[in-house]
Amino acid sequence: MIGRLLVANRGEIARRVFRTCRELGVETVAVFSDADADAPHVAEADQAVRLGAPLAYLDPDRLVEAARRSGADAVHPGYGFLSEHAGFARAVLDAGLTWIGPSPEAVAAMGTKIEAKALMAEAGVPVLPTIPLSPDATPHLSLPVLVKASAGGGGRGMRVVRDPAGLAEAVASARREALSAFGDGTLFAEPLQEGARHIEVQILADEHGTVWALGERECSIQRRHQKVIEEAPSPAVTPELRRELSDAAIRAARAIGYTGAGTVEFLVSDEGFFFLEMNTRLQVEHPVTECVYGVDLVRLQIEVAEGARLAALPPSPVGHAIEARLYAEDAEGRPQSGVLHRFEIPGVDGEFGLGARLRLDSGVVSGGEVGVHYDPMLAKVVSYGGDRAEAARRLAHALARARIHGLTTNRDILVGVLRHPDFLSGALDTGFLDRRPVPATLAGPGAVRLSALAAALAGAAANRAAARRDGVLGGLPSGWRNVPSQPRRTAYDAEDGGRLEIAYRLTRDGLRAEGFEDVALVSAEPGRVVLETDGLRHAFEVAAYPGVVHVDSPLGPVRLVPVERLPEPSARTSPGALPAPMPGTVLRVEVKPGDVVEAGQPVVVLEAMKMEHLIVAPASGTVAALHVAPGARVEAGAPLADIEPEREPETTPAPKTTSAPETPAPETAPAAETTRVTDGAPDIEAYEAAPTEAHSEARVEPPAPPAGTTPAEARTEGHAEARISAGVEPPAPPAGTAPALGQAPVAAADPAPGQAPGQAPGQAPVDATDPARGWAAGQDGGTGENPRLDTRGDFPTDTHAGPPPGAGIPPSGAVPGAEAGSHSSGAAPGADPGAAPSGEVGQR
Amino acid sequence: MTVLVSRLDASSAEYGARREAMLAKIAELEAEHAKAVAGGGPKYVERHRERGGLLPRERIELLVDPDAPFLELSPLAAWGTEFPVGASVVTGIGVVEGVECVITASDPTVRGGASNPWTLRKTLRAAEIALRNRMPYVNLVESGGADLPTQKEIFIPGGQVFRDLTRLSAAGIPTIALVFGNATAGGAYVPGLSDHVVMVRERAKVFLGGPPLVRMATGEESDDESLGGAEMHARASGLADHLAADEHDALRIGRRIVRRLGWRTAGHAAARDYPAPLFDEDELLGIVPEDLKVPFDPREVLARVVDGSDFDEFKPLYGPSLVTGWASVHGHPVGVLANAQGVLFGAESQKAAQFIQLANQTRTPLVFLQNTTGYMVGKEYEQSGIVKHGSLMINAVANSTVPHITIVMGASYGAGNYGMCGRAYDPRFLFSWPSAKSAVMGPAQLAGVLSIVGRAAAEARGQVYDEEADAAMRTAVETQIEAESAAFFLSGRLYDDGVIDPRDTRTVLGLCLSAVAGAPDPGRAGYGVFRM
């Protein structure tokens, strides 16, 4: 019997496993990185072991050591991270601990695609034909096909080819990429299956020869090839097909002597169903199966690991369950980070719990911080009902009314999908979300305006409440004037970037708001405003936090950023404005108006305090204006040039200066600050040959790589990319480098380690024949913003719409060393005006 | 606790007529206020905006705390004169970073913001309010200096503007100048004598003599920027403490300065929780008769102004023509003196004197609600000492050391104006309702007196009195006095701090009572309370 179990994972899956442990009476041990020190999973566990750097979850040695130190006698890997890492499983077993999962041999058996497919074909599991692609001969294929890397995963080395003209180049680039990523350029091709569904079968096997198939899950709703909505059962699977799929899954499990919980993934199209791969671990979306079958899969995993026998037959399914994954990301999929001020899902009747009508599996709590290091999945919300329609309606309502404050999430899109006629009719395929079938926000323009008015009135009520508290004319009417001259004005920036100007007066005769002539104010309190329009009353719940206001109402949640009434002048400069960081003399101007510049490219050289300071472009773009000429004396904050950014930058990095004599050393590059590790929340299951993979991406908007940038240069600019390939043991990190953990596996796993940090430029080009090209471009802008180490397990690229290799990997050159600024201040001792960039003169 | 009972019948025709008349007056008032708000008119407003300037009220709106009240003072200044209504300056009381401040803002759209004699009086009044109530004084400066044709009215007394600034500072009351544009010649001493000075880059211009004058005086060639630009003052002369990037920045810095004052008011803290009046303030419109000769019960007003309509009357049976008693307004305790029957007799005067002494004993601010035709005349009253009794009341008012606030609701005639704390008796604040009238006596009486005196003179000379001329004279005098006793006219001459909508009375009182609480209590003078 297991007495103390360590979960080698974080976030919601760690909490999920702990919940079952508490029920079973098993003691719990959490592990955590420095970034997760205050995370809920740490607080909940009986013991917690600090691992260190953000990427430490990927370090088998530390995890085994943590288990040893805490006295754990078993390890549950969760999903993602090292959950499909045969080496880790082996290390756990070698340490004399119980491994909650299949044998390392079973994990390894699913290692490469060509072999796994051959194994499955042998066992009588349907597979698509494997067309070998030798390096020398260009084969004659009937197009379209999907080119895959045998050792591949995460979509790498994968190309859709429709046009014979593009074949040779597609194969060549896929091979380069596969070689670079996996050290193995073996390719093969499969006939492309279009409009296919992603359907997977949950299996559970004990050590005594019993294998259960617990029905299928439909996972076709994906965005950027990551699952977001999953359900059981699939609306498309007939009892007959279910039987066939279950039989095939059981055959697959038996073929490799599988034990524990696992998932066999199939592609289901008009032509039949075909084995994709097997995920040798618990799946993110396992709750839907638990709901429908009334089982606790984690409990069964533990019991099987303890040698228990499964009943001869699995339970029968009842009802329908749907899971939605809440991600902190914007409409473009860019991950968000910051404080999650509030996280409340109304109607939840079970956290991680069985038997709930509305189940919440969450890795976050109100007030928690969502960092940049890990996958931005906040929670899974699962509804269960007698039928699909009931479950969909309940889930949509709960999400629509959830109070999620502080971060932008995909909640609105989830609700839109759950209410979409096509979804409700069961007409799903993996391209559903790519067609953008639902608006990015639930609240339409009218609702947003009304919500902004409510926010303004709630703000007024809050201001008056503060005045009452302070005893400064608090009892007088709000905004009272004996000589009214103008309305009170306030403004908010909406999520779509539009600015909402609200002009109102509260008069003896009620609300007078410009553009809201038909709106009457019923009541206004700091947290709640009731408005009446056209005889209908609407209540708005308003929550104001520093820099953001959330308005929740049945009209849809609205997130508003209040516009400062009197902003500091420095905050008003345009994103591309380049102010002088300190007073000095312009030595040289390196650009002329109209020039196209890259981020980090020198624009002006400023001499101050006998030092030359390089003023570099904060973002890539065009030089819109130059305000200085050589010899000009400039004050701190004086505008030097305007760079019109290439596209709307998400963040405005402060202008960088670099003291001429030196460039930041690589080890000071902010990689550690800007890496993000996925805890595997994105499903690893769609993973191909590389069961575990992680890569980190630099945080800042990635411009196109400057020609001729060498990887070494890229590294100095702060990019870091790390990945761990299947079966490759990440060695101990080199000491003394902060981002070491992130970089160490790179060097080990990557045959061309020098290229890893910046991601070889050669990988960036997207195959012209790739239908997912548009996506790739979007991804480029997206993930580059918010780097996270991403286990990227959920690249169900076998659905033949996979992303091109390298997509999502920012090209190099994006991060002109953030600490260059500190260099400059260091280089300008006593250059005090730098401290007052507002241009204001300090009192003397 | 004594809750007032209202006998007002809001459905009566009389009420309706009074209400209509008052609403008409309020509409007139709003039209006059609109003139002040319009400043120099669309052309000059447009020109000012083109230069990137904010209007004075826009500056104030950005300076004060969002959603806090703002009481504009003397908005009708210069009404009925050759100068535009408002007198090219905006003054008022507003809350900045939680601190009640007196704010003045010159209106550059009105003749360049030049000061005329009414501008001066309005400005001096604002400074007086800041000094007496100990409120930080914020000047939003952009003025072209003095209106030269009227310099004789401005130059000599105008020195008080600068004297006041430095005396405020000497009294420990912070003075802040945000310079948005011209502050030249004498105007330069506004920033010069302020504690804190912010100048707007490329806009502020502060010098004693501009380039032409300098060339005339010394032959030196110069320009505005080198003589008085914001950059120059921030870097070279040190006259500016803060260089603002633009107007918004200046206002931001101004707010920051006030925040850093750490200003604490010295007076009593008001109660935080208090009930609103039980009766609708809207009904204040239907109380005052169109004909001021008809008296009205001030308790109907109090029932709609004081907290909880709760009024403990003092000596209700003695001298009933004057109502006295205790109440609170927005949590501030007050003593109230309100005329009930217009005329003040000996008993009313003695009651008032005693009540004022009681308020001084408990250090309770007094609110005077005026509707008086003056002290009673006639043989009987003279013989019973009405002059002595009136003097008693005037003496008490004049030497009372608690803050006084006066509202002229209706008539304010004769020495009743004095006894009920008219302008000459230095109430901290004085506001009028739109239909109020103040004069030595009513227009008809005044014309009648002139007629009687004229007739007597004619008869003494043995002449026949010209009845036709007398009638014409009486009409002319009545018309003139009527016009010159009206609220707008008197407000235009700064004899009050503004004409207010009666429905705003409670709000205005609340704001003023909070302001008067800003100054420490000077303590009471001599003697125990004399029983009258």
Rg over C-alpha atoms of chain A, rounded to the nearest angstrom: 28 Å
Overall pLDDT confidence of chain B? 94
SSE-based structural type of chain B: alpha/beta
Count, helices of chain A:
19
* Rg over C-alpha atoms of chain B, rounded to the nearest angstrom: 25 Å
Strand content of chain A: 25-35%
How much helix is in the residues of chain A?
10-25%
Q: Cα distance, first to last residue of chain B? A: 25 Å
Oligomer: heterodimer
Report the count of strand segments of chain A.
Answer: 39
What does this entry look like structurally?
The complex is a heterodimer of chains A (844) and B (532). Chain A is globular, with a radius of gyration of 28 Å. The longest helix of chain A has 26 residues, at 445-470. In chain A, the strands form eight sheets. A nine-stranded mixed sheet of chain A has the order 14-13-10-11-12-15-21-19-18. Chain A has an eight-stranded antiparallel sheet with strand order 25-24-23-30-29-28-27-26, covered by helices on one side. Chain A has 844 residues and is of the alpha+beta class. Chain A starts with a strand and ends in a 17-residue tail after the last helix. Chain A contains 19 helices and 39 strands. With 532 residues, chain B is of the alpha/beta class. In chain B, 41% of the residues lie in helices and 17% in strands. Chain B is built from 19 helices and 16 strands. In chain B, the strands form three sheets. A seven-stranded mixed sheet of chain B has the order 1-2-3-4-5-6-7, with helices on both faces. In chain B, strands 8, 9, 10, 12, 14, 15 and 16 form a seven-stranded mixed sheet that branches. In chain B, strands 11-13 form a two-stranded parallel ribbon. In chain B, α4 runs parallel beside α5 (151-170). At the A-B interface, α14 and β23 of A face α1, α3, β1, β7 and α10 of B. Chain B: Residues 22-273 form the CoA carboxyltransferase N-terminal domain. Chain B: Residues 280-532 form the CoA carboxyltransferase C-terminal domain. Chain B: This is Acetyl-CoA carboxylase carboxyltransferase subunit. Chain B: It comes from Microbispora amethystogenes. Chain B: InterPro entries: AcCoA_carboxyl_beta (IPR034733), ClpP/crotonase-like_dom_sf (IPR029045), COA_CT_C (IPR011763), COA_CT_N (IPR011762), MCCB/AccD1-like (IPR045190).
